[in-house]
Prior knowledge:
78 residues, alpha+beta
Amino acid sequence: xxxxxxxxxxxxxxxxxxxxxxxxxxxxxxxxxxxxxxxxxxxxxxxxxxxxxxxxxxxxxxxxxxxxxxxxxxxxxx
Length: 78
């Protein structure tokens, strides 16, 4: 059976591959990611690419470092 993988924020969902269901999810703010052939919804979610599952937590540390550096520079100037 084919499933559409849809994503909203960091949440993934597997829905049956029917255009009407996909359109309902798009109206709720989900975006289409890919089509997967799987036995059931949980199997479809486990078959998604790691890049789809991965969050952007790795951006937090460099951003925090830049902010702390800017604060340090501001205090060093004064």
